[in-house]
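Structure tokens please, single chain.
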Amino acid sequence: MTQALAEAETRLEDDRVEYELIELLFFAYRDFVAEPDRILTRYGFGRAHHRVLHFVNRNPGLTIAALLEILQITKQSLSRVLKDLIEGGFIEQRAGSEDRRQRLLFVTRLGAALAGEMAQRQSDRIGRALESAGPRGREVAERFLAALIDAQQRGKVASLIGLPGKTRP
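Here you go.
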């Protein structure tokens, strides 16, 4: 056994590794996205399509640049997904009113219906979980989830999703 491996094993024994919470997050995420995944397969879409639809639906007129920043993906990754959604009639692009080169994204009626169906299923699951968490469950869950986000990103995320004390753009 190498010295580095022995040191790593000692650290793992000495440090508290939150295996149970790590695994709960894995399983919670698996089940949280399961219903939307089944819905998306009807259209030949995947989770990337879900994320794009969700954020465009929640932020009508979102720019490509803003969407890239939210998702933290490359333009190339977004391009294929966006092409699928536009060709399928779920999202439309419009030129900006002040800068015609700017591309603004909007969901169509079809896109809003699909995004709404998936959001409702996830909202129902969250509602059941919060109900079982007790009277302060939502507050604790928000604090916990916000604390998992990198500190330098929390302000942007809070502003984007409209957490208390912040406003949506």
